[in-house]
Specification:
The protein has 15 helices and 11 strands. With 435 residues, it is an alpha/beta fold. Strands 5-4-3-6-7-8-9 form a 7-stranded mixed β-sheet. A two-stranded antiparallel ribbon has the order 1-2. A two-stranded parallel sheet has the order 10-11. Strand 6, helix 6 and strand 7 form a beta-alpha-beta unit. The protein is elongated and about 80 Å long. The protein starts with a helix and ends with a helix.
């Protein structure tokens, strides 16, 4: 079973502290709140990954770093009254409840609001109140607030929310269209009609739907239109641009800014550039065409670095499971299976039976020979091109560890028996609906 406490602490240390989150109150709260309780049970093992997760109704629970960034920007202290727009699963509200005196959260989807209320009751957060409504209009009867956090991107900061802030209060809100990217903005109220603005970087949130946000069809809501304004269009501005703000950069522009020039794969500095991903559980290396020898050499160089320097122990490839198992026995110094066919003799042979992969397998075998057996990195396939070999491998394993399950597997594999040797007949049967 996954140790959620250890995983939660690792999330804080790796995803938050290393990326600049410093507020001790925020870090302590995020070490305490069980994020796995705010996602579907089937997604619990992914609760502390550095990514958003779907929670239903087309909504997501934000990645932990974004939650921490927004709460740190809000400068919460004990005694504060906080409004959250877009309660979602309730996770951010729970984190804020560990710091502030009262948290008021608005969610426009009744199903999500009910689930969030249930979680608060189960976890004992009695200082959180959740209701269903239009978050762009705020919660006037509970105002004024010390801080307001908005978990959806609007065309501009909703005037109703700005009006519900105390003097010195902080509003943290994404501004811009979801499809073109948004800017996370912090507004601090310095006077009755005066504000100090600070940009916190690019983000991507679901759209803020409401009377002072976007309409359901993606146009600006009626209450934000100016006379003569065409819904969905801001006069004098490019699509996705927010009036009075700098133009949102396009995806190619953002990629160009973030791109890092690399030397040739053979250069020692090439693989070193990928050390930035060493703290991840899984690193995916892909290329759309499966193309050139240079790509295969680059992929091998990165993989060698992650294994040698950072302790990665599994190489999972888009290759046939039984064939990759033969390579795995070779690289981990295990005996070959008697009577086994040579690996990678069927489609797609060119992807794996090539000199670059052979060179990597030889390196991995040599490297594994220098470490203890339990520290040897494996080579495993994720695909099942070889139906007959794959079925045989499953049955051989089950025969050894669970004979009852092996009998069930044989029965269920029976429907595939006619096509184990001639896969084309299965394709023809599907096309003619004669299967």
């Amino acid at each position: 079973m996954l140790d959620f406490v250890a995983t939660r602490n690792r999330m804080v240390d790796v995803q938050l502290v290393r990326r600049g989150i410093r507020d001790a109150l925020v870090l302590r709260a995020m070490r305490k709140v069980p994020r796995e309780a705010f996602v579907d049970p089937g997604m619990a093992e992914f609760a502390y990954e550095d990514s958003p997760l779907a929670i239903g109704e087309g909504q997501t629970i934000s990645q932990p770093y974004i939650v921490a960034l927004m709460i740190e920007a809000a400068e919460l202290v004990p005694g504060d009254r906080v409004l959250e727009v877009g309660a979602g699963s309730g996770y951010a509200a729970a984190v804020m409840a560990e710091i502030a005196a009262r948290v008021f959260a608005i969610e426009r989807h009744p199903g999500l609001a009910d689930e969030a209320k249930g979680r608060m009751a189960t976890l004992g957060y009695r200082n959180v109140e959740i209701r269903v409504g239009d978050g762009t209009l705020g919660w006037p009867e509970a105002a004024p607030f010390d801080a307001i956090l908005v978990a959806a991107g609007g065309p501009e900061p909703p005037p109703a929310l700005k009006a519900q802030l105390k003097l010195g209060g902080r509003l943290v809100v994404p501004i811009g269209r979801a499809e073109t990217g948004q800017e996370l903005v912090k507004l601090t109220r310095t006077g009755a009609a005066d504000w100090r603005e600070e940009g916190l970087g690019g983000v991507r949130f679901v759209p803020l739907i409401g009377r002072q946000g976007w309409a359901e069809d993606g146009s600006r809501s009626a209450t934000t239109h100016v006379p003569g304004h065409v819904p969905g269009h801001v006069p004098g501005h490019v699509p996705g641009h927010v009036p009075g703000r700098a133009r949102v950069k396009t995806l190619p522009e953002l990629v160009a800014e973030a791109a890092v020039p690399l030397p040739a794969p053979e250069d020692p500095g090439f693989a070193a550039a990928f050390d930035r991903y060493a703290d991840r559980r899984v690193v995916l290396l892909g290329e759309a065409s499966h193309g050139t020898a240079e790509f295969y050499r680059a992929r091998a160089a990165i993989t060698r670095r992650l294994i040698e320097r950072h302790g990665f122990s599994i190489v999972a490839v888009e290759a046939d499971w039984p064939d990759a198992a033969a390579v795995d026995r070779f690289v981990r110094h295990r005996p070959a299976r008697p009577g086994a066919e040579p690996p990678f003799r069927r489609f797609p042979t060119w992807m794996w039976r090539n000199t670059e992969v052979a060179a990597f397998a030889l390196w991995l075998r040599e490297r594994n020979g220098r470490v203890a057996p339990e520290r040897r990195a494996g080579f495993h396939g994720l695909d099942l091109y070889n139906m007959r070999g794959s079925i045989a491998a499953v049955l051989a394993y089950l025969d050894a560890v669970d004979p009852a399950a092996a009998r069930v597997a044989r029965e269920r594999y029976g429907c595939l028996t006619p096509w184990q040797n001639e896969y084309a007949t299965y394709g023809r049967a599907v096309l003619t609906e004669s299967y």
